[in-house]
Description:
The chain has helices at 19-23, 30-37, 51-65, 90-98, 114-128, 151-154, 202-206, 216-236, 255-265, 276-279, 286-296; strands at residues 2-11, 16-18, 41-43, 75-79, 104-108, 134-140, 160-169, 173-181, 189-190, 213-214, 247-250, 305-312, 316-323. The protein is of the alpha/beta class. The chain has 2 domains: 2-171, 3-Layer(aba) Sandwich (Peroxisomal Thiolase, Chain A, domain 1); 176-323, 3-Layer(aba) Sandwich (Peroxisomal Thiolase, Chain A, domain 1). The radius of gyration is 19 Å and the shape is globular. The chain starts with a strand and ends with a strand. The chain binds oxa(dethia)-CoA (UT7). Residues 28, 32-33, 36-37, 112, 151-152, 155, 216-217, 219-220, 223, 253-254, 257, 281, 283, 312 line the site of oxa(dethia)-CoA.
Amino acid sequence: MKAGIIGIGSYLPDKVISNYDLEKKVDTSNEWIIERTGISYRRKANDNICSSDLGAEAAKLSIKDANLEPEDIDLIISASSSPDRIFPATACIIQNKIRAKNAAAFDIQAACTGFIYALTTAAQFIVGGQYKNILVVGSEVLSKVTDWEDRNTCVLFGDGAGAVVLSKVKWGGVINSILGADGNGSELLELPAGGTKEPADFDTVKKRRHYIKMSGNEVFKFAVKVFEDCTRKVIKEADLSLNDIDLIIPHQANIRIIDAAIKRLKFPRDRVVVNLSNYGNMSSASIPVALDEAFRMGRIKKGHKIILIGFGAGLTWGANLIDWNL
Ligand code: UT7
């Protein structure tokens, strides 16, 4: 018995920020951003919107897609790098917003790998028999934790949300999952202040410590390496080969990361889902949004073997190998 995805949904705010808009804010150019990242546009939520709002909209769509009602959900796992608050869990706020009154709810913090960690955890609860229908949400309003004066980071991120419902399936489902972490690299990508290490005060605000800080080059090299290693490992453990894989859906951080890893793997580029040009890096929401789009476009068919692969702050990484059951 395996856990499989029985419903998917995604939700993106309407407002689009182009590279040309960013040229007016910081010393950058459309050419630089496209050449170094592959990103042309990203979405931005309105000021009154937080992660749980986007997550709740994606959640409702995924539950409808699964032909279920919110009361049928037994557990909600939410992943976000831009949660509503330190506590309570964003999952609890989503639970209330969608009226999933029978669901337990908790958050997972694994930054851009959050969706993979959450999906892997959900699959275990299903296989273990404790829960029947689990909602997994990746939602981000990164625009509120992005330093709009820092050209190194403000060109990269976008807002959005994606969600899936997992349940027991008779055929297919999640075949294998791997997760990894290296806390030695925890300072390479972080939001330094606002927690117990650097509580919020006038100084942390003045020093702009409540925004994302990243050592781009080091994270880039790490990402290419784990993308390749993770892909090989998740396939090998399932006794499959790269030739068996129909589609790879990676975290959408940078087109050069995806191209470099795909080249190392010698995997056909037309079997890799890339949508970062339109949305930028949506951290935990990137993978479920790309998954939803690929499915709606007919790129994923029943029986396809697909790999979801994530990497990011922590440092963390992970992959799911899925025999598509829908
Ligand atoms: O989602 C979690 C995982 N995150 C990632 O995987 C992100 C990984 N890192 C990256 O994608 C890339 O490192 C970046 C896109 C962030 C940066 O690209 P890069 O090719 O590594 O550029 P760089 O940081 O080495 O900077 C090259 C130059 C620098 O100028 P100097 O020092 O050579 O004069 C930067 O100051 O480009 C400059 N630069 C910019 N120029 C124009 C940095 N950002 C910009 C910008 N516009 N927006």
